[in-house]
Amino acid sequence: MPRDLVRRAARRLRRAVVGAPTRPEPSSVLARAPLPVLGYVVAGADGAHPASAHVRVVRRTEHLAASGTTAVRQVDPAAFVDGTDTTAYAAVLVQRDILPRDAVQPFLDAAAARGVRVVGEVDDDFFTESGRRRLARAEYDPDRLASIDALVRGADTVVVSTPELADVVRPVARDVTVVPNALDPGLWTPGAAEHDDERPDGEHRVLYMGTLTHAADLELLRDVFTDLTTADGTPIRLEVIGVTAEGGADWFRRVEVPDGHYPAFSRWLVAHRERWRAGVAPLRDEEFNRAKSDLKFLEYTALGLPAVVSDRPSYALARAHGAVVVPDDPAAWRDAVHAAVERGTADERAVRWVTGERTIGREDDAWRRVLLG
Predict the structure, then answer these.
(1) What is the pLDDT confidence band of residue 245, given thresholds at 50, 70 and 90?
(2) Per-residue model confidence as pLDDT tens digits over 26-53
(3) Which burial class, exposed, middle or buried, applies to 115 when counting CB atoms under 10 A from its CB (0-12, 13-18, 19+)?
(4) 258 confidence band (pLDDT: 50, 70, 90)
(5) Per-residue pLDDT for 189 more than 60?
(6) Contacts for 239 with CB less than 8 Å, ≥ 6 apart
């Protein structure tokens, strides 16, 4: 038999046995295969979302979509429940209290009827009595807390940001997975500084930023920054973004930032990073704070700032990667802040770790497995 006829016969045999062509299909053919669709339910729309939604959900799902392996879309809960939205979701990620209390069970029922996995997401201690009291002071009403409780109890799995929070959630959830916070490189990769003249000769500035749930933590710094100076007598001034509704005090200055959601806020910080020489993240020794993440350390490092933080479980891992971890002692804090200001730049170990291990995109496979099973 001629050699070319033998080759053709062998190819036919392989097709019959293996059931696949000998050459890969063109990319245009593969592109027609439907992608699994991940839905998410968060506050806001069209890119205007609270910071927690951006950090924990939106930026990550956008990276999954950009990878070309998953389609993502924001879900209208009402349309999902009444059947108007007929999308064949593989899973829907629901963030903490976005569903009103009386809408949680209908949403869970609709998902079960359609065979859609529901993944809940929480990033704070909404469950212990002390945690609930602290959140109440930050204007979390009982219905919001009840909504979160119902979601966590009914979801197929719950994603949290720290092992300590997982321990809090595990008694009430079916399944819990830890996915540490990570930064979006599209927001936090510095270019050339836009405001090189923001470090005045007359003072050094230290940044503390956070939500209103940290108002009590701010008081830990009163004795630290009162009359704090460098060796040459230059004042070290604390600047606060968020954290407290108060306008300021003689020992700290409140900084107002332009209106805008998390992406704009992050880019503003990056553009103005020359304004500060260090960042601080105090945490009181309270049950609520033990479940907090190390996000502030990540953000300060991305700004190129040394980070001085409380000696809490939140920063146990960061300690090994350049965070300056300080006990609850004003003198120790003053020494640590003084040293950080003198240094003025982030520890190289911190920069390598945040860039290499705590950046969105590094853990896409793990994140996809959590959401899509």
Answers:
(1) low
(2) 444 444 558 899 999 999 888 888 888 8
(3) exposed
(4) confident
(5) yes
(6) 205, 206, 207, 208, 252, 253, 254, 255, 275, 276
